[in-house]
Design brief:
The protein is mainly beta. It contains four helices and 18 strands. A 16-stranded antiparallel barrel has the order 1-2-3-4-5-6-7-8-9-10-11-12-13-16-17-18. Strands 14-15 form a two-stranded antiparallel ribbon.
């Protein structure tokens, strides 16, 4: 009997020895099957009837070259999303590459900033490990670590996630773009989350790819599903040195920049929604301030046609923030405190009004997205300065359009 039990025990141990790897292999296979792949391409043109001599639409990053068609971006994405509502551990990743004219403004110094120096450049806007941890509360904690796109503000570098071809002044000059670090979201309950993170700085990395020797970080709160599910908001604050040692000397390591962005969206009905964004930024090293308000209205005329409005007032108190970068590498060179070919204006209060439509028919047949977005935009100095069209005019008209195709 003892021998039989011993033999049976050996059989069970052997079975369990092989069952564990089989279960692991099954889970790994299921995990691998949940990986998704995507591609997206965007091209556009931003016409300026004033035809500035330097060929640049002042105060605009996307579509900055006046009257010149361009390949804005090609996005290639590999992603394994985590279920943020799960009650167990989840692991995933997000890897994305971008090639095109837009990449000039989203470079991270020391990573891809020296790869290409022409108008069309390459970047890794996102390359991060994602974890969902069932800790502290029923909804748990989410973490992203690696190369991260900024969580701040309303508008995104991804054209499928924003209403217009061009960007607001607030997005360009008063929110961050790219980071190397970690970001956390702690889901307190069904409606509220605490946000916090730390990184090397806005669009810098390590060693020679850093503009100072100090870190920066986020703190904030997000609310969703409020007022009967119609209202959501996000506040993000950020503090840390962002100026270059080449510009300020050792003082750059301790001179803090304070960013504050509050935005909220209210869905009036199935067709109409409104968004407001308040932003305030102060830089100790530059002794400079900027504050702004942006309003958005979106109205869905038909299932495939949406009308969009954006109105903005942006105050650049010293003229040190709103800048046009005239060279292909000027933006990242300026970030590092190096000499750069730029054009700036005196202290100015900018007003900007943008009207546009988004035609987005559903094609199917592996076409996940197709949209065409014409827009008309008018920018104006509200305090009499002349920042536009080679520093000659108080105002600037642009007529832009882009097309986006995604698979």
């Amino acid at each position: 009997m003892v021998r039989r039990l011993g033999f049976a025990t050996m059989i069970l141990l052997a079975a369990s020895h092989w069952a564990v790897p089989s279960a692991f292999a099954s889970d790994l296979g299921s995990w691998a099957k949940s990986i998704t792949y995507g591609a997206q391409i965007e091209g556009g043109i931003n016409a300026n009837p004033a035809r500035p001599d330097n060929g640049v639409n002042f105060g605009q990053f996307f579509g900055d070259r006046a009257n010149q068609p361009q390949l804005d971006q090609i996005l290639l994405t590999v992603n394994r999303a985590v279920d943020t509502t799960a009650h167990d551990y989840q692991i995933g990743f997000f890897l994305q590459g971008m090639y095109g004219a837009d990449a000039r403004y989203f470079q991270i110094a020391g990573i891809t900033s020296n790869a290409i120096s022409s108008r069309y450049q390459f970047i890794l806007p996102q390359a991060h490990l994602d974890l969902h941890l069932p800790w502290l509360t029923r909804h748990g904690l989410d973490m992203q670590a690696g190369i991260l796109t900024s969580p701040m503000g309303v508008e995104s570098y991804d054209p499928s996630l924003r209403p217009f071809y061009t960007l607001s002044y607030t997005t360009q000059y008063s929110t961050t773009f790219e980071h190397v670090g970690g970001m956390f979201q702690w889901h307190v309950d069904d409606h509220f989350s605490a946000l916090f993170g730390v990184d090397t700085g806005n669009q810098v990395s390590f060693g020679g790819g850093d503009n100072n020797h100090a870190a920066a970080g986020y703190f904030g709160v997000n609310g969703s599903g409020l007022l009967g599910g119609k209202f959501s908001f996000t506040y993000l604050g950020r503090v840390g040195p962002e100026d270059a040692i080449r510009t300020l000397g050792k003082q750059a390591n301790s001179s803090q920049r304070f960013w504050n962005d509050l935005n909220g969206t209210y869905k009036i009905n199935d067709k109409l929604s409104v968004t407001g964004e308040f932003n305030y930024m102060h830089d100790d090293g530059l002794r400079a301030d900027a504050y702004s308000f942006v309003s958005y209205v979106s109205y869905q005329i038909t299932p495939s046609l949406t009308l969009n409005y954006r109105g903005e007032i942006y105050r650049d108190n010293t003229g040190l923030f709103v800048t046009s970068f005239l060279g292909d590498t000027s933006y990242i060179r300026a970030t590092l405190g190096k000499s750069a070919y730029t054009q700036s204006a005196p202290p100015t209060t900018y007003g900007a009004l943008t009207l546009g439509t988004n035609w987005h028919p559903a094609f199917g047949h592996h076409v996940k997205l197709f949209e065409i977005r014409p827009e008309i935009r008018f920018d104006r100095s509200l305090n009499g300065t002349t920042p536009f069209n080679d520093l000659r005019n108080t105002g600037q008209f642009t007529f832009g359009a882009d097309a986006v195709l995604g698979f």
